[in-house]
Amino acid sequence: MxxxxxxAWTAGITAIVVSVGVFLVxxxxxILQASKDPADASSLAFSWPQHWQFFANLxxxxxxxxxxxxxxxxxxxxxxxTSVTIMVLLAAMAGYVLARRKSRWNALxxxxxxxxxxxxxxxxxxxWVLQRLHLFGTLPGMILIEATFGLSFSIxxxxxxVGNIPRELDEAAVLDGAGPFRLFFRVVMPLLRPxxxxxxxxxxxxxxxxxxxxxxxxxxNEHATVQLTLFTFQSQNLSFYNLLYMDIxxxxxPPLIAYIFSNRQIVAGLTSGAIKG
Amino acid sequence: MSTTxxxxxxxxxxxxxxxxxxxxxxxxxSYYPRSFFVPTVVLYVVLFAVPSVASFYFSLTRWSLFDxxxxxxxxxxxxxxxxxxxxxxxxxxxxxxxxSGSKVIIGFFLxxxxxxxxxxxxxxxxxxxxxxxxxxxxxxFMFKSLLDPFHGMVxxxxxxxxxxxxxxxxxxxxxxxxxxxxxxxxGVGIATLIFMAGIVAIPHEYFEAAKIDGAGPWKxxxxxxxxxxxxxxxxxxxxxxxxxxxxxxxxxxxxGGGPGFTSDVIASVIYKEYQAGFYGLSSAGNVVLFxxxxxxxxxxxxxxNRRQVEL
Lengths: 277, 311
What we know:
Radius of gyration of chain A: 23 Å
Number of strands of chain B: 2
Strand order of the largest sheet of chain B: 1-2
Helix content of chain B: 55-70%
Distance between the termini of chain A: 38 Å
Helix content of chain A: over 70%
Distance between the termini of chain B: 22 Å
Order of helices and strands of chain A: HHHHHHHHHHHH
Oligomer: heterodimer
């Protein structure tokens, strides 16, 4: 018993020491850099700021390029909220029917769902299609793209979860006179809450952090998303590392909040889908 | 399994009301309308399937988005003859296998550690998962500073101990491996999470029985934990390989494919050719990436057992 205790302690202490070096130091570095003056930050040293100017930097970042970051946050917020809403609604409907309705088409549908997960999107032809639809370089176009690219993964999670809800429930609802739409939206959908939370958080973090998507499909400064603002600080103000790091800090906050509030449910939802298969 | 016990609504109604309900109710199957698929299918076809199929045609053309000239396989010949382009193919494979393999191994051992009784478990779980949430571009810039050959903290520490100070992102032989390491740092949290779920799902009796039979921790790991985490392993391998083969953000943020083109992968070549206006060549890159992913993932998914691949 004592031996096991010591082993837990030594393993734990070693892991903590290593984790401080590997994971904590980089994040402390971000905060230190974000608090320095430009000259101090450009030395890139892991050092205590000579002059603390955290809030001055914050103000400077928010004012750069006529406050591009405000617009970027607004764009990212609209993009994330709408695309994830579409994704959840469509994927829940599709995953539900896929889990419930046994038909010989299911194998084909499953194949396409997996293909959507595995196949890398063809970039330039997608731009071509978007141009034809007059959606290229528009926020609605980007929203639909993000929603489409996230569908497969979401459908897989919903399908796995619906498979665990007893069919008897549907039958009881039908017996009480519910039609197909009432059955889904009033009876089944509320039961999907845990997996909805998982899908919302996972996909929201993904869309919010997506860089390649807006890079290709949403060019132009007025449509910049938060990830692209990082490049404005990197290229235009090469000597302003402090502002770059302040920007990194700012755009890390929303995913962090989302995660803190839903930590347990994400793990539960992901694992019910990922492990049981 | 329960089909024999499950009554249809009509039968159930008869039992409950004791009367014969006229059979005008629809069969239960029609309560799961195919129309629920329609919006999904529309989006999937228009924004995913059509471009994917079109990429095969446009990869055979010289293309300006407005008109295209059919030029046969010239783009592919160009892709595999130009060393700037075909090395990206090799880098993609190296990168994907290194990141995926490392995530499996490191993720598994972290999961074993973090599901055991270890001091500071909550803190460790949080800290390992945190990088997953951070913007990939932000992580790339951060490591570019930390691994700066002259001013970076890592080389300062190495120099302090009198160790060599490599140019992590500037040495052509090293750049792609450095990026892979950063990728592992950022992504190992997901692998750990999936493995943790897999290990927790193993019935506790197995471990207890093994202990009673006198198995040591190493033997338990080899005989129970590893084989019984197979579904989780399959998920981790597949997800991390797909991610690794498509990787773009982190490479673009750190080296942009450089120095020269020594850390270019297919995804970054697709972007560069797109930027340069070679849309046909860019689409050819897409087709190559598609083939690479398919050739690797389909047999692998088959081997790793279809049921487990379906997440």
